[in-house]
Every structure is written in structure tokens, then in C-alpha cells.
């Protein structure tokens, strides 16, 4: 494989394992005294297994991704003489598209079925960053769009890899706050802890990748204040890999089978995760009152 085609984020794998071990040892000494969640061995193993699976899928999808990006680039409406300008456009453009793609993943249940795998841990440490949804490739519909504005497949891939690497370090409780100017512009551990929270005020906020500016601009920013409770609104209560990957898909299938009417069945797949038809919400309300 040519180095130019090598996924840049895979180069960071040794750094991932080194920093995970450093964080784990630090947490062992300080987590209890500081009231942090720290590490759970079974949870960390599940996260690392999911990360390994996502790497396999990434390699399998790479040829298709390259063809789609090349097709868009071949139809570009502008070209860039400077590689610096091209990469700068790629980085900012990738981050903006990531914001909207990430937001969409939280607001459509079929997309959430994949993305929720990343949110399924009740712990928050560097292994959580690697807890990726294996079939999470709906981005193929969005990120190649950069090719139309002169971003080559190489620059597109590099910007995507760097975006992913950046988001690794923000999955930690070991860092409290960054300097105020940094917190104002960039995504940080504090901002992303809130994103992983199931506290009502944190749900569906702080979607940014590298820049938190998009959230401030589009009205989805929420600062970390109350201690964050991590996980899902309905936690898995298991470290079984099959459940972590397929649990939400099974829930969708159950609702499609159980809910009556075409609108309800389509809603079970495409509407936001909390949506349910009026008949079901009424029945649920009646049951809770009994």
C-alpha cells in the first residue's frame, strides 16, 4: 500500500495504546479521590474490541471511499494551486460537514443505532474514543462533497484522519479545563464530556469535531457544569460485544414489528430516537399511571 493512500489515523495507533496505559495508571491513583469514573476492565476490553472491528471495516470500505472521493474531485468546479490552501479548506470544510453529520446521527434512529455504540459506555476514558460503530459510514454521502470545491482525495483523507486523531484526546476525565481562549474556539475534554452526558441539559449538544465554534454558531453549545452521567438513556447493562453493536438495531426491529401502521414503522427507523407514535406514547402514559 502506498504511503499516500495509507489512512493517516492508523499511524496514531501506537500513541493510542501508550496514552491509554498512562491514563489508566493515573486514574488508578487519582480517580477515587477526585470522584472520577476511571477505568473498568471489562468496559475497556469492549471498547478496544469495537475499535479493532472499526479498523477492519475501515480497510474494507477504503476502496469504495477512494472511488467516491475521486469521482467528486474529477467534477470539481475549482482547483487550488497551493497544497496549503487546499488542506486548510479541507480541514475547515471537513469539520463543518462533520458537525452536521454528527448532529444528524443523533437525530435519526437508524443512524443513532450505529453512533450510539460510541456512546454506550458508562465510563469516559481514552478507550471510549476507540469505541467506534463499525458500520458508521454514512459519511460517504457527505464528506466527498469537498471534492467539488477542489479538495483531492488525499487532502480529504488526511483532513478526516487528523480530525479523528484530534478527537481522541478529548475523551478523558484527567484534563479538567483548557485555557479560556482555547475552550472558546476548540472542542475540549470538558465540552465533549458534556456531549457524552445523559443529563437532560447535555443531551444533543456539543457536536463539534475540532472546533466548538460550530455549536456556538448553530445554537447547540452547552458548557459542562453539573457532573456528567455517561452512557445512554437506557443503558446496555452488559459488556457483551454483540449487544453493544446490535442492541439498538434489535430495538428498531422490535418496534417495526410491534407498531401498527406504515407511518409508525417508518418512524421507528427514521425519526429521532425518542420518537414514538401517539398510540404508543398514550399507552405508555396510561401504563405509568396505573
Automatic annotation (TrEMBL):
<dbReference type="Pfam" id="PF04116">
    <property type="entry name" value="FA_hydroxylase"/>
</dbReference>
<keyword id="KW-0443">Lipid metabolism</keyword>
<dbReference type="GO" id="GO:0050479">
    <property type="term" value="F:glyceryl-ether monooxygenase activity"/>
</dbReference>
<keyword id="KW-1133">Transmembrane helix</keyword>
<dbReference type="GO" id="GO:0005783">
    <property type="term" value="C:endoplasmic reticulum"/>
</dbReference>
<dbReference type="GO" id="GO:0008610">
    <property type="term" value="P:lipid biosynthetic process"/>
</dbReference>
<keyword id="KW-0812">Transmembrane</keyword>
<protein>
    <submittedName>
        <fullName>Unannotated protein</fullName>
    </submittedName>
</protein>
<dbReference type="GO" id="GO:0005506">
    <property type="term" value="F:iron ion binding"/>
</dbReference>
<dbReference type="InterPro" id="IPR051689">
    <property type="entry name" value="Sterol_desaturase/TMEM195"/>
</dbReference>
<feature type="domain" description="Fatty acid hydroxylase">
    <location>
        <begin position="88"/>
        <end position="220"/>
    </location>
</feature>
<keyword id="KW-0560">Oxidoreductase</keyword>
<keyword id="KW-0472">Membrane</keyword>
<dbReference type="GO" id="GO:0016020">
    <property type="term" value="C:membrane"/>
</dbReference>
<dbReference type="GO" id="GO:0006643">
    <property type="term" value="P:membrane lipid metabolic process"/>
</dbReference>
<dbReference type="InterPro" id="IPR006694">
    <property type="entry name" value="Fatty_acid_hydroxylase"/>
</dbReference>
Amino acid at each position: 500500500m502506498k504511503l499516500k493512500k495509507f489512512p493517516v489515523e492508523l499511524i496514531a495507533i501506537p500513541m493510542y495504546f501508550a496514552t491509554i496505559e498512562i491514563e489508566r495508571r493515573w486514574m488508578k491513583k487519582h480517580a477515587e479521590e477526585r470522584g472520577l469514573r476511571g477505568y473498568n476492565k471489562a468496559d475497556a476490553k469492549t471498547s478496544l474490541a469495537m475499535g479493532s472491528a472499526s479498523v477492519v471495516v475501515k480497510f474494507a470500505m477504503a476502496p469504495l471511499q477512494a472511488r467516491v472521493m475521486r469521482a467528486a474531485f474529477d467534477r470539481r468546479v475549482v482547483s487550488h494551486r497551493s497544497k496549503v490552501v487546499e488542506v486548510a479548506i479541507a480541514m475547515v470544510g471537513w469539520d463543518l460537514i462533520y458537525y452536521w453529520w454528527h448532529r444528524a446521527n443523533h437525530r435519526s434512529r437508524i443512524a443513532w443505532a450505529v453512533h450510539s455504540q460510541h456512546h454506550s459506555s458508562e465510563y469516559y476514558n481514552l478507550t471510549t474514543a476507540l469505541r467506534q460503530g463499525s458500520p458508521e459510514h454514512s459519511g460517504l454521502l457527505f464528506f466527498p462533497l469537498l471534492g467539488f470545491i477542489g479538495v483531492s482525495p488525499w487532502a480529504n483523507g488526511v483532513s478526516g484522519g487528523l480530525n479523528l486523531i484530534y478527537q481522541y484526546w478529548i475523551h478523558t476525565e484527567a484534563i479538567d479545563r483548557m485555557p479560556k481562549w482555547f475552550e472558546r474556539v476548540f472542542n475540549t475534554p470538558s465540552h465533549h464530556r458534556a456531549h457524552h452526558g445523559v443529563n437532560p441539559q447535555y443531551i444533543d449538544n456539543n457536536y463539534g469535531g475540532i472546533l466548538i465554534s460550530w455549536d456556538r454558531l448553530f445554537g447547540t453549545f452547552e458548557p459542562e457544569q453539573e457532573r456528567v452521567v455517561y452512557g445512554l438513556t437506557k443503558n446496555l447493562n452488559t459488556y457483551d460485544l454483540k449487544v453493544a453493536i446490535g442492541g439498538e438495531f434489535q430495538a428498531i426491529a422490535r418496534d417495526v414489528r410491534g407498531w401498527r401502521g406504515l407511518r409508525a414503522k417508518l418512524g421507528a427507523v427514521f425519526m429521532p430516537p425518542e420518537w414514538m407514535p401517539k398510540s404508543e406514547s398514550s399507552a405508555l402514559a396510561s401504563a405509568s399511571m396505573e
